[in-house]
Amino acid sequence: EQVVDQEYHLDQVSTWPESSLQLGQVSGLALDSDSNLVIFHRGDHQWRLDSFNTQARYQQRLLGPIQQSTILVVDPAKGRILKASGRNMFYLPHGITTDKDNNYWVTDVALHQVLKVSSDGRDRILVELGEAFTPGSDINHFCQPTDVAVDTETGNIFVSDGYCNARMLKFSADGKYLSQWGAGSSDRRRRTPFQIPHSLVFLPDRKEVCVADRENGRIQCFLAETGEFVKEIKKDEFGGKVFAIAFTPAEDDLIYAVNGESLYHSTPLKGFVISYSTKRILDTFSPNKKEFKMPHDIVVTPDGSVFVGDVGSKTVFKFTAEKLHRSV
Ligand SMILES: O=C(N[C@@H](O)C(=O)O)c1ccccc1
């Protein structure tokens, strides 16, 4: 691999947040239209090995929904809580995305649902997809859906479904089913199914939707219009698992990703900055104060700050790009 002469390196901002956010398992991150950070967390609920039975049915339904505010809007500079909502609605939060009106599109793996929720503090459910607590694989049921991406051009949404399905679905902004597809590959012999499509990102300039195909340790990108396979980014350095991906229009050739623990060999957990066009890894980063335990989602702000939400350490980490003093 040709050495890339690095100009910047992402370093942890260890003083962020200024005061504790009292988070549970952090499953999802998003940005609102003011580039504030939106955190989706599980309060006092945890996804454990016994949370689901062999039919993927959630076992702790009688505990009721999480009573803490599961959706926090915090300012990216200091980490102060600006808004809190999402109480008494969710059981096992997973992905969160905002649309152009700052509504929240969320997934809950216990509910097996995708919900569009108002961000006015009234938590109004504007669109409800899937049947509560009922896993399935037709167009009205999901199985532990993981994330949503919004096509900013058309308003259509993409759903990655999920831990117990292996597909991507496309719906209109008001929830009408449009299409679905499995893993992409132009060459049918290479068609390998998704293994936990886990995180989505929409690339507005290319009109593509990319998915972190978690257990295949690869990123796949598809044309938003047709679902046609465009490109795959798979790097040995990922160590076999890619948990989440992110993009900011301000840096339109970069894709950001975090990897995950793999059972076989102990891969260092870290973030990656990848060139979409060359597939080269331009930078890697990890916290220097605390360790990553299960980095689970990632977002990038237009000014280049990177936030990583970690399910294992119940923490959100902030990184900023520092200019490297290059020796002449
Ligand atoms: O991957 C898992 N969890 C994370 O992705 C998450 O918590 O979203 C998981 C898998 C099996 C059992 C328990 C947890």
Task: Give structural notes.
The protein has 328 residues and is mostly beta strands. Helix content is 0%, strand content 40%. It has no helices and 24 strands. The protein has a four-stranded antiparallel β-sheet with strand order 1-24-23-22, with no helix packed on it. Strand 7 and strand 8 form a beta hairpin. Bound molecules: (2S)-hydroxy[(phenylcarbonyl)amino]ethanoic acid.
List keywords for this structure.
binds (2S)-hydroxy[(phenylcarbonyl)amino]ethanoic acid, mainly beta, four-stranded antiparallel sheet, 328 residues, globular, single chain, 0% helix, 24 strands
Brief description of this entry?
The protein has 328 residues and is mostly beta strands.
Write the layout of secondary structure elements.
Blueprint: E1 8-12, E2 26-31, E3 37-41, E4 71-74, E5 81-85, E6 93-98, E7 104-108, E8 113-117, E9 125-129, E10 145-150, E11 157-161, E12 167-171, E13 177-181, E14 197-203, E15 208-213, E16 218-223, E17 229-233, E18 242-246, E19 254-259, E20 271-275, E21 281-285, E22 295-300, E23 306-310, E24 315-323
Antiparallel strand pairs: 1-24, 2-3, 3-4, 4-5, 6-7, 7-8, 8-9, 10-11, 11-12, 12-13, 14-15, 15-16, 16-17, 18-19, 19-20, 20-21, 22-23, 23-24
The structure holds (2S)-hydroxy[(phenylcarbonyl)amino]ethanoic acid (HH3).
